[in-house]
Amino acid sequence: MRRIRPPAGMRRAFVNMYERLARDARVRVRPVVEHYARNERDAGLVNVCIRHDVDIRLDRAAEIARYEADLGLRSSWYFLTDTAPYRVWESDIPREIAAMGHEVGVHSDHLYEQLALGRDGLARLREDVARMAEHARCTVHGICWHGGKHIAAFGANNYDLYKDIDPAQLGLEYHDAVFYHEGTRKWRCDRIISDGENNLRFVPGKPGREIDRAESGADILVVTHPFMMYPLRFPPSVRYPDYPHLSPPRRRTLVMDLKSCIAYNKQYLGEKRTARLRRLVALLERIGMK
User: Fold this and answer.
1) Integer Cα distance of 45 and 27 in angstroms
2) What are phi and psi of 159, to 5 degrees?
3) Spatial contact of 77 and 94, defined as CB atoms under 8 Å apart
């Protein structure tokens, strides 16, 4: 198999992961609608589902999706709408990604719209689902909720808006309930590979290790955010609407990333490496680094 060149600047953890997924004959990768909503799994293979929440860096989404398509992989992409720091309705990127064979959905921030802006959250959600389908020229099968300090400021979670509603009533095949054990927010998958809090910065081999450990029939969910897949340099285009509590994520620091690495990867790192990293964090904090 010829080597497909990854997007310039993509973190090594993700390049390693994609190359492994593409070449491993034991692995089958599907988008969310097939993997979870329709339960299309192979008992004799490792079943992997890739989900992308596009919080910021819309400009990176198309090149990641093209890289996946070139590798023969399909994934699911969820876009913010009115509260995004990008202008999704003015962009061809959702349409381009759908044309590559990926799934396109909505990253719901609609309870926030209801609480902060006085809008009808469910009506706005239905409106955005229909508009995204028209804009991307594809069927929108599902949605997933968007989190952050802006909705936390109201003591709420965007999932609360629709968690007890049948997806069909929203014109959908699924919503976040497909990811969780019934009545909980505990992941259904056997293993999860997440870029949350930039925790893969220091453990680029973790995705491959998780795939190695998986047995036939296993269910692995990969949850990523395009802005976490590259060094965090926000372009001038990152401008949020003038709504309450909306602002860019905190800029990451070495100490912050080391702490999140420890929190997310204790089992992977082992006791000795975890202890060494904790001593390093303590030393950096003593000399004034944050």
Assistant:
1) 6
2) -65, -30
3) yes
Residues in a beta bridge with 144: 107
- Name residue 187's beta-bridge partners: 180
Helices in the chain by DSSP H: which ranges? 12-23, 32, 58-70, 93-99, 110-117, 121-136, 149-152, 206-213, 254-286
Rounded Cα distance between 188 and 245, Å, is 32
- Which candidate, 208, 160, 194, places its Cα nearest to that of 265? 194
| pLDDT score at 48 | 97
* Residues 106, 146: Cα–Cα separation, whole Å: 9
To the question of pTM greater than 0.85 for the whole model, the response is yes
Instruction: Compute the C-alpha angle 276/273/203, nearest 5°.
Output: 115
Q: Residues 58, 63, 66, CA angle at the centre, nearest 5°?
A: 125
Pairing between strand 76-79 and 219-224?
Answer: unpaired
Residue 124: name the closest of 136, 112, 138, 141 by CA.
112
Cross-strand partners of 107:
144
Q: What is the pLDDT of residues 220-258, one digit of tens each?
A: 999 999 988 987 665 555 678 888 888 766 667 778 888
Domain boundaries, the chain: 12-235
272 burial (CB, 10 Å; 0-12 / 13-18 / 19+) is: exposed
Rounded Cα distance between 167 and 146, Å, is 17
Q: Take residue 160 and report the two structure tokens written for it.
A: 């609360």
CATH number for the domain running over 12-235: 3.20.20
